[in-house]
Amino acid sequence: MNALTTPQVQMKQPVVRPAHCSEEEWQLRCDLAECYHLIDYMGWSETIFNHISARLPGPVHQYLVNPFGLNYIEITPANLLKVDLNGQKVEPSPYDANPASFALHGALHEARDDIRCIIHTHTTPISAVVQKRKGFDNNNFYGAQLYGRVGYHTFEGITLYDDEKPRMVASLGQKHILVLRNHGIAVAEGSIAKAIFLLWTTQRAAEVQCAAAALPGEDNPLPEAVQQKCTEQTEMLIRESDFANQFFNGMVRRMHAARGPSW
Fold first, then answer.
1. Is domain 23-259 classified as CATH 3.40.225.10?
2. Cα distance between the two ends of the chain
3. Does the structure show a pLDDT above 50 at 11?
4. Ramachandran sector of residue 152 (left: φ over 0; alpha: ψ -120 to 50; beta: rest)
5. How confident is the model over 259-263, as a mean pLDDT?
6. Is the pLDDT of residue 8 over 60?
7. Residue 125 Cα distances to 39, 144, 177, 210, 219, angstroms
């Protein structure tokens, strides 16, 4: 369904911070809930499946993740689960988490302290690209921004088992996009806003790559030096400006404007 024609859904989200929740954690919960709503709004959700996590501040490795069984549109700051690296709830909740999320999110959050948000999706264009042996190319405007940022992991089935964790970590290395071959992707970044921007860039790269593959004629390849320059320029923009937050906030405003005041 086109995002701009998504029916309005009337729902009341909690606006009062619980007494036991710090202001910092509550803001993270609010941002993560909006992230879930954005993924749904853009048409990138997969009914009740897939998962997005945000690591909580502090030295203890705990993160927030969606309750399994809820649609993304039903997620609120209050009903997000707080879990440890093994996916065990550290606060009571009537919900459980999706067991397929534990290995992926727990492994990457434990291995990379710079990773604060992980978004796992398998939209149709992304799933099509990662099914191809070549994977992502870097010859369109968006794909060029992914040069050197993609790690590839061989499909081993649904990510349920601890023994796959070190292999996923090794496949990602120090990159920020993990291609789960024949499956989907996980983008891993230093904030929710940065992860949303990276996912949007990756989605656009996949869409253009699929469209170009359907057209006759040869592609016009970009020199490797240009691909590297595009990636460096994008990373510098994200690192040295408020661009990612502006992008995230702009998308949230667009979503709320389209869904109306009842949202």
1. yes
2. 18
3. no
4. beta
5. 79
6. no
7. 15, 17, 15, 7, 18
